[in-house]
Amino acid sequence: MLAGLIFFLMMFAFANLFYFVFSKASNILERFAACFVGALGIAFIVSLATDFDMLKINLIKFSGYYLLLYLVHLFIIEVIKLNKYSIYVISFSAMAFFVTIFYDTVIQSFIQYF
Fold this sequence. Notes:
Elements: H1 2-21, H2 28-49, H3 55-80, H4 85-111
Keywords: Membrane, Transmembrane, Transmembrane helix
Transmembrane segments: 6-22, 29-50, 62-80, 87-111
């Protein structure tokens, strides 16, 4: 129960980050690159704090998950064209839930080969 609550709080935070930081199409690649470097930095710090031998796997986990969530944001903003905040947050959270399930299964099978 607590893990689910933490997950939805994190998705709400990601939705707010993407909605307010990446709302305009101009310089969207530059903003994404800056936040992507931040996600890689977080993965590096997590690897230092836990197990440095897992650096490669942590970099793949964090950067891939961030990239998929960013693609969800682009899909909502550019393809579906939802610009209303409340509808955006609800749809982002729902899509992020399915992306998380998909990405978790892919990463679990990927880690088995390391």
